[in-house]
Amino acid sequence: MVYNEIGKTGMRVANLAFGASSLGGVFHDLREEEGIRAVHVAVDNGINFIDVSPYYGHLKAEMVLGKALKEIPRDKYYLSTKVGRYGKDGVNTWDYSAKRATESVYESMQRLNVDYIDLINVHDVEFADLQQVVDETLPALVALKKKGVVGHVGITDLQPENLKWVIEHSPEGTVESVLCFCHYSLNDDMLLDYLDFFEAKGVGVINASPLSMGLLSQRGTPAWHPAPDTLKAACKKAADYCGKVGYPIEKLAIQYSTSLNPRIATTLFSSTNPDNVLKNIRFVEEEMDENLVGEVKAIIGNQMRVRWKNS
Predict the structure, then answer these.
(1) Are 40 and 7 in contact (CB under 8 A)?
(2) Beta-carbon neighbour count of residue 12 at 10 Å?
């Protein structure tokens, strides 16, 4: 794998990273021991950036990841988690106040069995009052950075225009990285429109969900997936075509999101299956079929960049 720096943070990370959302059973049922083993396989094979959130599985992902991290030397990985989005008893909740953000960081460290968070993010800012994020949430995280509790501060969202707005309205250097998902994949490359801006501001870029949360997979999307039916149908057609030519769409999607743009530091994928983790790492190491990329994009056609709302 290739290692890139996230902006100016000094964190050099592999171009494929481990997203721990699946450890919360977000996409499919979880077998905990298998999920823990998946984390070990990722780190043992060169992945050194792990991202999670208290929202994933409503605390479950952090708790399961924490069990895995107890057995892994701290210098083997960079750890990212989030504040602002939560849940309890199956009900989603949001709280972007400074008080809750500060409490959340310490709670996450306890669940994760660490005494330091490398990157702390404001989670899915589209659900917040963006001005509150600027005036309250981010300053609380910067205060924790000054105390040495966290290393760097970032923001995440589905919509890149929200990320841009927060950066424009925050003191320079406050936001050190952005995480945007489903906008640098085979069916949508909107994130490319914003790379010049992020680079000019010295902000590192993390991409997530190269499979577009299941759109670009043979298995298909979970029931809660917010994409419109027309896009789901187009992506299924593309997946079927890749299957017919003997080149799984998952392989092509992983390769596409990790190989073409060095300004995107890393791409997060999530799996609780150790074999799939290793398989994805091997995909990154193989040469991509660029002709097939063109054919898949042609199949998806006018559904490229169809907008859908986070849920």
Answers:
(1) no
(2) 14
Instruction: Choose among 98, 105, 97: nearest CA to 121.
Output: 105
Query: Which residue, 192, 193, 240, 181, is CA-closest to 216?
Result: 240
Distance CA 261, CA 242 (A): 23
Q: What is the pTM for the complete model shown?
A: 0.95
pLDDT of residue 31: 86
Report pLDDT digits (tens) over 215-249.
999 988 888 888 889 999 999 999 999 999 999 99
Q: Is residue 56 flagged as an active site residue? A: yes
Residue 236: how many CB atoms within 10 A of its CB? 18
Tell me the per-residue pLDDT of 145-204, one tens digit each, with 9 for 90 and over: 999 999 999 999 999 999 999 999 999 999 999 999 999 999 999 999 999 999 999 999
Instruction: Write the secondary structure of the chain as one string of H (helix), E (strand) and C (coil).
Output: CCEEECCCCCCEEECEEEEHHHHHCCCCCCCHHHHHHHHHHHHHCCCCEEECCCCCCCCHHHHHHHHHHCCCCHHHCEEEEEECEEEECCEEEECCCHHHHHHHHHHHHHHHCCCCEEEEEECCHHHCCHHHHHHHHHHHHHHHHHHCCEEEEEEEECCHHHHHHHHHCCCCCCCCEEEEECCCECCECHHHHHHHHHHHCCCEEEEECCCHHHCCCCCCCCCCCCCCHHHHHHHHHHHHHHHHCCCCHHHHHHHHHHHCCCCCCEEEECCCCHHHHHHHHHHHHCCCCHHHHHHHHHHHHHHCCCCCCCC
Catalytic one of 3, 55, 56, 194? 56
| Structure confidence at residue 259 (pLDDT) | 87
Alpha-carbon distance of 252 to 260, in angstroms, equals 12
